[in-house]
Amino acid sequence: xxxxxxxxxxxxxxxxxxxxxxxxxxxxxxxxxxxxxxxxxxxxxxxxxxxxxxxxxxxxxxxxxxxxxxxxxxxxxxxxxxx
Length: 83
Prior knowledge:
With 83 residues, this protein is mainly beta. The protein has one domain. It has 1 helix and 5 strands, in the order βββββα. It has one helix spanning 68-77; strands at 2-4, 7-17, 27-36, 39-48, 53-59. Strands 1-2-3-4-5 form a 5-stranded antiparallel sheet, with helices on one face. β3 (27-36) and β4 (39-48) form a beta hairpin. The longest helix is centred in the last third of the chain and has 10 residues, at 68-77. The chain is elongated and about 45 Å long.
């Protein structure tokens, strides 16, 4: 489980690889999901921790930035913070 924008996500899969023995910069590959309103939101965190990339999608599909809106709206209604 992880918390992102005030919403709880279930980690569906994930791994962290410490492949460089000379530098603490693990490569992260994590997929997490939650349901907000009628949307299932999936987040993917990938890449080295120094250059982590976030990709997200929803079902039913929402346009790019609109995916983040239900998460922000719900966390604000619960007294969370807007990011």
